[in-house]
């Protein structure tokens, strides 16, 4: 199939693009390539790969690229509450408006596969799983923009949305700010972390299982069409303290302390049911412990000390 991915050089895209090419698809990536790095360099040898430097908010580019695609995967986004808070205009125009504009340009014969954040659930009820029927109550601009974009995709009738748990794992376009990646990095480099509101829970998913989820949605589009699906590890609804305990099993010298005062600006606290997507036959391949081990191997190669003397 001919697949258009916006933001395809990012954390998820740099894993997704090679996989889709391996499956035989033609892949066009629309990205600003702002970081100037080479996350997709290896796939340039593939004649079915077409990179386009541009902005997903540019209507002229959308007019050219969207009609040519069988599948549109809008990954371009400002991801995370802090980044969206820092630039609210770019957050709304990229996370929400650009997706709506792309969807408006699709026909009913085209497929839209869209990643949402399950942070849209906000603060869940204690001991009660959030399902796809749970009311969405996003508490950050990031959550609000993604929820609004999801509504546009589902209302258009030709899409599937995947409500992603907190993603972790190594990627060519690495992110150290994601919770599992961050805590594991601190375990390796600082040997310690101070936790605010360590009882807050959330769900997790490996970046390669995210890509596998998109593959699954594409292969089962007819039966999954028009629906939202939580995508996460059913055995990884963990608090921050529980996450640190799992990391400590592989990094015994890691020390974690819960601060007696202070609060986390990210107030998300929920547990999530992934039963709906599992009922379609999807299963993850990357449990949390395997992902932590992968990160530990990866962090032997990474240095994040640009302004350090060491």
Automatic annotation (TrEMBL):
InterPro entries hit by this protein? Epimerase_deHydtase (IPR001509), Lipid_A_modif_metabolic_enz (IPR050177), NAD(P)-bd_dom_sf (IPR036291)
Domain (NAD-dependent epimerase/dehydratase): residue spans on this chain: 3-232
Instruction: Report which residue ranges the record marks as coiled coil.
Output: none
User: Which Pfam families does this chain map to?
Assistant: Epimerase
Which Gene3D superfamilies does the UniProt entry name for this protein?
NAD(P)-binding Rossmann-like Domain
Q: Which top-rank group of organisms is this from?
A: Bacteria
List the protein's name. NAD-dependent epimerase/dehydratase
């Amino acid at each position: 199939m001919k697949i258009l991915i916006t933001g395809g050089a990012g954390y998820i895209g740099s894993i997704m693009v090679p996989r889709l090419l391996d499956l035989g698809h033609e892949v066009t990536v629309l990205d600003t390539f702002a970081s100037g790095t080479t996350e997709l360099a290896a796939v340039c040898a593939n004649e079915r790969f077409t990179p386009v430097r541009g902005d997903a908010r540019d209507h002229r580019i959308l007019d050219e690229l969207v009609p040519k695609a069988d599948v549109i995967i809008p990954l371009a986004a400002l991801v995370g509450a802090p980044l969206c808070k820092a630039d609210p205009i770019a957050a709304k125009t990229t996370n929400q408006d650009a997706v709506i504009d792309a969807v408006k340009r699709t026909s009913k014969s085209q497929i839209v596969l869209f990643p949402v954040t399950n942070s849209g659930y906000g603060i869940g009820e204690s001991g009660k799983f959030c399902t796809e029927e749970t009311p969405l109550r996003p508490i950050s601009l990031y959550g609000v923009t993604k929820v609004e974009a999801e509504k546009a995709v589902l209302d258009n009738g030709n899409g599937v949305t995947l409500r992603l748990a907190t993603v972790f794992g190594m990627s060519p376009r690495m992110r150290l700010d994601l919770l599992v990646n961050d805590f594991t990095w601190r375990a390796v480099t600082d040997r310690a972390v101070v936790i605010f509101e360590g009882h807050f829970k959330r769900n997790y998913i490996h970046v390669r299982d995210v890509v596998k989820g998109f593959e699954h949605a594409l292969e089962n589009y007819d039966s999954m069409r028009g629906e939202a699906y939580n995508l996460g590890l059913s055995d990884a609804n963990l608090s921050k303290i529980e996450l640190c305990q799992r990391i400590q099993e592989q990094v015994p010298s890691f020390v974690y302390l819960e601060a007696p005062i202070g609060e986390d600006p990210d107030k998300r606290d929920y547990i999530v049911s992934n039963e709906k997507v599992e009922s379609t036959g999807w299963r993850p391949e990357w449990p949390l412990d395997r992902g932590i081990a992968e990160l530990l191997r990866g962090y032997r190669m990474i240095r994040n000390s640009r302004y350090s003397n060491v």
